Amino acid sequence: MGNWVVNHWFSVLFLAVWFGLNVFLFVDAFLKYEKADKYYYTRKILGSTLACARASALCLNFNSMLILLPVCRNLLSFLRGTCSFCSRTLRKQLDHNLTFHKLVAYMICLHTAIHIIAHLFNFDCYSRSRQATDGSLASILSGLSHDEKKGGSWLNPIHPHITPTVYIFTVTFDMVLSSVNSNLFLFLLVKK
């Protein structure tokens, strides 16, 4: 075990930093949307699902930025050969580029699932607040309009006469299918 730590310390450190950045980005964005005053009324309608959707979206953006770096041949060749600061330890870790590429792909799949599930709960919360007649703050906020002539809501995009439930489920189903197809393609690409 001691030899393994000596031989792979840089990989463990790099993966710990990458995982730590993912956790930090998720928690930071979650707390930002969960505590910020400008999202107070949206939180009254959606609850914590707003923060979950936005935090997972930030992690998706971060990992989508990273996924191609481990397979850029020119960058890897540059780091291996022409850089004088590239030590033997770093060169050895560059050989594990496909493993990191796969880990990033798995993290993208995880955050995609979290993002989709949070949006499904968002649709449910929007629909429930629009249909509520109990006088709760969420139902009152869903009925607020910035222009009484148009009848558009500031906070709730679901309108009883404009957006029927079938349309919402169709859009949601299409969003889920397109995400599953792209992630399945990514998964199959990673498997090769």
Automatic annotation (TrEMBL):
The organism's place on the tree of life at top rank: Eukaryota
GO biological process, one term: defense response
Cellular component, GO annotation: NADPH oxidase complex
Signal peptide residue numbers: none
Keywords from the named record: Membrane, Oxidoreductase, Transmembrane, Transmembrane helix
Transmembrane segments: 12-33, 103-121, 166-190
InterPro entries, per the entry: Cyt_b245_heavy_chain (IPR000778), RBOH/FRE (IPR050369)
Listed GO MF terms: superoxide-generating NAD(P)H oxidase activity
Protein name: NADPH oxidase 1
